[in-house]
## 1
Amino acid sequence: MPSKALITGIAGQDGSYLSELLLDKGYEVHGIVRRVDLEDPDHRLGRLKPIQDRLTLHSASLENYPSIVRVVAEIQPDECYHLAAQSFVNYSFDDEFSTINTNINGTHYMLSAVKEKAPRCRFYFAASSEMFGLVQETPQKETTSFHPRSPYGISKVAGFHLTQNYRESYKLFALSGILFNHESPRRGYEFVTRKITNAVAQIKLGMAKELRLGNLEAKRDWGFAGDYVKAMWLMLQQDVPQDYVIATNEHHSVKQFLELAFGHVNLDWRDYVLVDKKFYRSAEVESLRGDYSKAKKELGWSPTVKFAELVKMMVDADLELNQKILSTKSV
Ligand code: F7E
């Protein structure tokens, strides 16, 4: 019998890479999606298109406990990857109540459903470097204390502690991956990396003239999402459940990202980028850099894609995508 995996947030960047990885390993892969996603698959499930026939998608809502319990009881997963969340930090300031309610309750419901209906299932929680916020030390590691700076960060700290508590109180095999920023050509357009690479492609192709951004000095530890989902899987294959930082231990500013991305198509970012206060955050996380030495030692995991390679990969993909859009328009 193949192992069964259940993924929440399967339609997102990480969910799509993780599904591909697990299918390659011979897993039976199930995903939780919203009813509206199933009604509009071309638009909402686009990242899963190449593998959709090999997945089983279940309609449920992370705001509705009975629907979660039903799916977990029916599938009886061996591994559960809880990735779903309202994950855009800036939006969480505008909609703090729904971010906090959905993210915390969603995690709580998943943990409780697994405990009640599939207690032998191994549970992965997608924690985040945003939990470190106003950083207490650099680089950040598993023992660094948290100081979240946004409703999103707060919801992830709560999810982290819920996961730890289910591990300690109910002996669930439950753990958190503290993932630093991870990007790819499948990244959502609201995040700064994809916003930049898409704009670079559009400017190069004459489809846009400028790019408006917020704080260009912020520094992030940016890795490749395809590498990071491997770490998620490795964590659940260990004998003992523990939390791990997944990062590259390098950080770069938004400005450095701009230099490389525009430079890749022989443009100077200073000619196109405008700073717009609208994109500044109420409370900024200025700088993040993660120490992944525990993951390296215990999981044998290291990142394979360096920063410059990641930027080029994303710009090239957006050039290709926008070229396709242009050519369909001109037909
Ligand atoms: O911002 C600055 C912004 O939205 C990165 C999520 O996946 O990673 C992500 O969170 C930096 C910030 O990602 C714009 O102020 C400047 O300092 O791409 P981002 P994030 O907030 O770091 C963590 C690990 C997660 O868990 C999250 O779910 O870029 N920045 N100008 C901008 N950011 C955006 N989005 N848009 C701008 O115009």
## 2
Amino acid sequence: MATKIPTITLNNGAKTPSIGYGTCQALDEELEKALEKALEAGYRHIDTAYVYQNEKVIGKVLKRWINDGKLKREDIFLVTKLPHAGNRPEGVVKYLKRSLENLQVEYIDLYLIHGPYGLPDFEGDFPPKDSNGNIILDMSTDHIAIWKAMEEQVDAGLAKAIGLSNFNKSQIERILKNSRIKPSALQIELHAFLQQNELVGLCKENNILVIAHSPLGNPGVNKIAEKLGQKTDHPDILGNPTVKAIAKKHSKTEAQVLLRFSVQQGWLPIPKSVNPERIKQNLDIFGFQLDKQDVNELKSLDADITVLDYRRFKGVENHPEFPFKDRIKTKN
Ligand code: A2P
């Protein structure tokens, strides 16, 4: 039996399950198998993006489930994202139509602008780089003009809801002041070590759903380094003693504690996993409750530590809309 997942109502009136399945980093056959397991387990909110290069596989699996009568389109809450290379008004409809075709659907439940800085429109691996390894940027990104084009996709019925990802507070405020259709969601990195209270507060005040990517702190980076015998400065949230103690107290895994914390904070976590047991385990978080003391202890782990290392994108901070100037170095 698939797990029954509580729902959250968005500001457009649509409902989404309160936990989703993250697909960033998974591709091809590995993702095809994992998504089968995720749907069997009961995930119905699926998160992808044009730049993840996995929309076609997701479309194939969803189509199969729909054709087999195991699923109706409206049972799924599908999220995808406008790539940075499409961050201009004419890019919105171009890339949204590509995503619809890849995913083999007529509409997207939630279409997000993937990030606030723009890249030139290019085909190829993300990100485009010059001969010195610097990311090639399009400095002319105009959020208000892009947002108008996003609103037109709602009018056209191609996106049921629209939102943002990786935008900072002042960028969101500017969109809120200059929009006809308000953003329904903000997807950001969010976990015990990076709780972003101010940004989350702004979203709550404006009825914007907060989606937490990397809710486990993306521990895969540590596992790879361990296998290669390499040292890494990647934070280890699953290994944190407070998280471990709370997991022991509830006879749950560290991951379940972190995901339960996300849900209790009102965030919608989208953990990634390609492992069938962990896929199931991550959904099994609705039969227990963290108490006030647990929550306070987890809140106290907030240390502005990010796992998404922007140093990978050399020179990205030079873009006028780069959102996290203070976060260009991973603090650890
Ligand atoms: P795997 O696919 O082998 O399960 P995040 O969503 O925070 O970015 O984390 C994703 C990473 O966390 C993946 O490497 C995934 O590896 C691992 N992961 C997912 N679920 C669990 C879990 N329950 N316990 C430990 N690691 C997990």
## 3
Amino acid sequence: MGQAPVVYGQSSRPPRGDYSRAHEDFTCAQDFDAYTAADHDTYHRLYERQSALLPGLASQAFIDVLPKLGAKERIPRFDDINEQLWRATRWQIVAVPGLIPERAFFSLLANRQFPVTDWIRKPEEFEYIVEPDVFHDLFGHVPLLFNPVIADYIQRYGQGGLKAEDLGAGEMLARLYWYTIEFGLIREPAGLRAYGAGILSSSGELQYSVQSPEPRRLPLELARTMRTRYKIDTYQQTYFVIDSFEQLFELTAPDFTHLYEELRLLPEFAADSAPLIST
Ligand code: HBI
Ligand code: FE
């Protein structure tokens, strides 16, 4: 039973992954033998370059758990990572051929299974790729699954996503994911740091998000964050800042049904809109 490919946004190219090998739930086996020497070399070079950029810019909590990925000279076997991950936070990473439909994505997260695309970008795409590949997912997302608070937040996000889909509020919840797990900033004792996977796996956006005077940096606040649109193919124009991972977890404790009802009556914010002047 194969699956139809999944494409997001105005992607002009067909999706990269081979969805015919995906099961009902869109997971597949990591096709480890398909990796070429060039693939392993691309992963190694991306890992070396990105890990050298982390000090002073990436969350210390991320830097502390990054070594849990194991191998850096080649693409790791997901089974090897899972042995440690299961022991640490009862999460498992599962291979997928690429982006998967929202409901399938939320269901996996709700079951503490994180979908990891198993192909890697071509050498000529070293600088940038729109679709998440194995480097974005492994280097960007997997280390913080070893952090108990983030691990619980992402499961709760998945549970909330299934409810949001039923309430037609998927886009509002997707923004929360985008501005935290993908592009979130955190205030640590040593200063402002990045914890979002989209930033941590990007050579250019890591410094930009933490140090550039250009983007807006607002405190994470559900009513604002869930109404702020985002762009998928440029650096973010707005980042949302938290003071602790616990804050994320507590934020998503209540049921969002009434919040969605209120917010859908209010105007949205453009990705680069100014903060409201507090009256
Ligand atoms: N699929 N494999 C994969 N990885 C993602 O991060 C992902 C996805 N599908 C949908 C999605 N993210 C976002 O739209 C979520 O906000 C739902
Ligand atoms: Fe991602």
